[in-house]
User: Fold this.
Amino acid sequence: MIEKMSESTGRVIGFRMSGHVTKEDYAVLTPEVQALVDREGSIGLLLDLENFKWEEANAWGSDLKFSQTYRHKIAKLAIVGDKRWQHLIANLADPFYAHESKFFHTTDRAAAWEWLNAK
Assistant:
């Protein structure tokens, strides 16, 4: 499941990803991101993966399309989680999902929002 986070404001938007993400879940993420890109141009994106398990195979195409469409529009990507593999995802995200990405432990969620909102 993907759900928009209430802390989203201005040019920064966040989503909580939990359980197993499906192709249908991208119907929540993509229109929200597109609307913000249309309004702001370049955006900050937070993905909270604390309760994320995995992305189902039927979502891989939507994930790839998302990265191709928005990688030049996402100035900063904050990955929030508590597992080593999530930290590795943040390291790999730069060339594929955003200009700059950074990992934040779940205990540093507020710092992730601050980093995204900093000019």
Q: What stands out?
A: The longest helix spans residues 26-40. Helices lie at 26-40, 60-70, 84-97, 109-117.
